[in-house]
Amino acid sequence: MTSTALRVAAVDLGATSGRVIAAEVAPDRLHLHEVHRFPNEPVRTPDGLHWNVLELHRQILTGLGHAHRAAGPALAGLAVDSWAVDYGLLRRGRLLGNPCHYRDEVRTEAGPARVHRLVPHEGLFARNGLQYLPFNTLYQLAADPWTALADRMLLIPDLLGHWLTGGPQFTERTNASTTGLLDVRTGAWDHELLARLGLPGSLCGELVDPGTPVGALRPDLARPLGLPEIPVTTVGSHDTASAVVAVPMTEAGAAYLSCGTWGLVGTELAEPVLTDAARAANFTNEGGVDGRVRFLTNVMGLWLLSESIRWWQRDGSSASLPDLLARAARAPLPVAVFDVQDPRFLAPGDLPARIAQWYEEHGLPAPPDRPALVRAIVESLAHTFAEAVDRTELLSGVRLTRIHVVGGGALNRLLCQRLADRAGRPVLAGPVEATALGNVLIQARTAGTLTGTLEDLRTLVARTHTPVTFTPRPNGSR
User: Fold this and answer.
1) How many other C-beta atoms can be found within 10 angstroms of the C-beta atom of residue 458?
2) Minimal CB count within 10 Å: which of 59, 144, 175, 253?
3) What number is the average pLDDT over the span 27-40?
């Protein structure tokens, strides 16, 4: 079967890099082409760590020019997804400074204590269903000196969508669910909680679902780049929400691991799990596309590898991840694992030294060289991911028979195999570009090129992106 393809652009912003993807979507095909990649590097100023959101806006426009040239005059849509929790504060439509970075140490220390004096975490979980993370939006707002001056908070994709179109200051629902300010049962803003925390209700704008028109690319932005006034819509603007759309879960009993800077381990449910056991295990209930619940837990993820590599390269020395992984794969088993969730690993800096410190404090020999440290990171991540899958099964009551790995971690063959070994379940790796795929799938469904449920969209992914299967080995060390 052949059909006319819809051509759209997906802006996918990760915590370390951003991409603009040109996509062709039709009922019989799904093709992505990365046309522009750029770094997303934080900037440290005297008042803390910030995102360079103006540079992100500029790079998006540059990428749209590339996407338009790749697609020709038929570029028919645009949507933005990004990491969660971070936001810009506006007053009368003007941004009050560059958005702060969730890894800013001062805010992540001050915010939780201020909030928990008013509402303990147990009470918060009953209302918002979220796991405790010190950088959740409500904690950041409590520590942000600009909050009292603002009349609107826009999460990063919504801020950029507003800048691109000049349209309404919407808040997309899947990302709003990560703020801690959304009622997990009703999906509406929890204005009682906002009042208890002393946060102005005006901060929270109109909630909209994925697939809502935002407006068209502003003429003053489009004309200099030779672009048409491209329609902009919402998708699952939390990148994990978009990634889960594209997990090829075509049968029941699937766990997923969206593995990038963070590792998000969980399953998709129809209703939230709000038990004391789920709260104690630090699981979260975040909004998914079409009203689904992403029941999951956050694991530190590939940040441990990427930041270690960045640290080793800071003085110009050679440190190639593929080479280190190849050498790490030859390291003998067993390898002592460390606690990847230790808060000391959250901030940027010398992670290799902090990992060595963890081993020393626990009376264990630290990895003696870089390949050994990389193997320790991989084993520790695989161990934690496998435990998270077991807890997901126990807490959700859903028997999980396989694990889908999407995102950059799907390319890490050592990690995928060790996860299969430790979890005792087959791992299906891919697609790597799940977030961008989920973005364009919802754009295509909104435009009418695709129809049906999430299961129908995932069937298209499964037909066009065959995963790599890793089978648990009988002699694999647990």
Assistant:
1) 23
2) 253
3) 96
Contact at 8 Å (CB) between 301 and 333? no
β-pairing, 87-91 vs 94-95, is antiparallel
pLDDT of residue 107: 80
Going 366 to 368 to 374 to 375, the CA torsion angle's sign is negative
Distances (CA, A) of 146 to 179, 221, 391: 17, 29, 39
Find the helix or strand (DSSP H, E) in which 381 lies.
helix 370-396
**Run of H or E including 388:** helix 370-396
Distance in angstroms (rounded) separating the CA atoms of residues 397 and 269: 10
Which residue from 256, 209, 173, 231 is spatially nearest to 434, judged by alpha carbons? Answer: 256
Contact indicator for 299, 384 with CB cutoff of 8 Å: yes
- 290: annotated active-site residue: no
Mean pLDDT for all residues in the chain? 95
Structure tokens at 1: 């079967």
146 CA to centre of own chain: 26
43: number of Cβ within 10 Å: 12
pLDDT in tens, 225-269: 888 899 999 999 999 999 999 999 988 999 999 999 999 999 999
DSSP summary character for residue 62: H
Nearest to 190 by CA among 119, 242, 140: 119
Alpha-carbon span 455 to 267, nearest angstrom: 14
| pLDDT value, residue 475 | 75
Instruction: Output the CA angle 26-434-132, nearest 5 degrees.
Output: 140
Q: How far is CA 342 from CA 115, 339, 347, 382, 384, in A?
A: 22, 6, 11, 16, 12
How confident is residue 1, by pLDDT bands cut at 50, 70 and 90?
very low
CB count in 10 Å sphere of residue 395:
20
Q: Residue 454 CB: number of other CB atoms within 10 A?
A: 21
Residue type, 366: A
pLDDT in tens, 408-442: 999 999 999 999 999 999 999 999 999 999 999 99
Q: What is the mean pLDDT of residues 260-282?
A: 97
Q: Tell me, rounded to whole angstroms, the distance of Cα 368 from its chain centroid.
A: 32
Q: What is the pLDDT, as a whole number, of residue 72?
A: 67
For residues 470 and 454, what is the distance between their CA atoms, to the nearest angstrom?
Answer: 25
Which neighbouring-strand residues pair with 405? Answer: 257, 429
Beta strand 171-172 with 207-208 is parallel
| Whole-model pTM over 0.85 | yes
Query: Out of 81, 144, 190, 239, which one is annotated catalytic?
Result: 239
* 289 contacts 241 by C-beta, under 8 angstroms: yes
